[in-house]
Design brief:
Structural class: mainly alpha
Strand content: under 5%
Distance between the termini: 63 Å
Largest sheet: none
Number of helices: 10
Helix content: over 70%
Shape: globular
Radius of gyration: 19 Å
Length: about 200
């Protein structure tokens, strides 16, 4: 029986993320992954039982990394503005440091793998954010809105700015760089929209 090689496994994971982002789920294959990773197809089956297993494990790993980063220096008992600012900082840091992982997460979270991956990677963070949301409403620091409206207003502007940053272009096609000033301007508008 062949043994696992952690270096090869990391190469395989990184190449899988790159291929998923580049080719999409339908264009992704174990044969192509093996070729791009410089390993045999048989080697892939040491790490994963099949394509679905590989995609699920990669999605869960990205999810765990992402939600772990979101929890850094964050508490659900924080004042609303302070907690939301920490979420913006954490989300920005992760997205800027790991753009391919974020693109892969986006792809997988809009696919048939979504429910499985979210269930396996989101549960603890969902409880923490639910408490933060409820605490903010109870303390009258946040206007009562649905979770979906909250998420859209609280994070939609951030993710749009991060997309512009990732593409390096503004809405009109000119150059764009996400600065602290731009981020702060957007954040203050979000606070204005969500607080009494």
């Amino acid at each position: 029986m062949r043994t696992r090689d952690s270096n090869k496994e990391e190469i395989v994971k990184q190449k899988a993320i790159e291929l998923l982002v580049e080719k999409g789920i339908e264009g992704f294959s174990m044969n192509r992954l093996a070729k791009e990773s410089g390993v045999s197809v048989a080697t892939l089956y040491i790490y994963y039982s099949d394509k679905d297993d590989l995609i699920k494990k990669i999605g869960i790993e990205i999810g765990h990394s992402f939600f772990s980063e979101m929890g850094k220096d964050f508490s659900p008992t924080m004042p609303f503005k302070e907690g939301l600012r920490k979420q913006w900082e954490n989300r920005s840091r992760f997205a800027l440091k790991h753009p391919l992982n974020v693109a892969c997460w986006e792809l997988l979270s809009h696919s048939s793998y979504r429910d499985f991956i979210l269930e396996e990677s989101l549960s603890d963070f969902k409880i923490i954010m639910g408490s933060f949301f409820k605490n903010a409403i109870d303390k009258k620091e946040l206007i009562p809105v649905s979770v979906e409206v909250f998420w859209s207003i609280a994070y939609g502007p951030l993710y749009s700015l991060l997309r512009f940053e990732n593409e390096g272009k503004n809405f009109g096609g000119g150059p764009f760089k996400l600065t602290q000033e731009i981020s702060e301007e957007a954040f203050e508008l979000v606070i204005k929209a969500l607080t009494p």
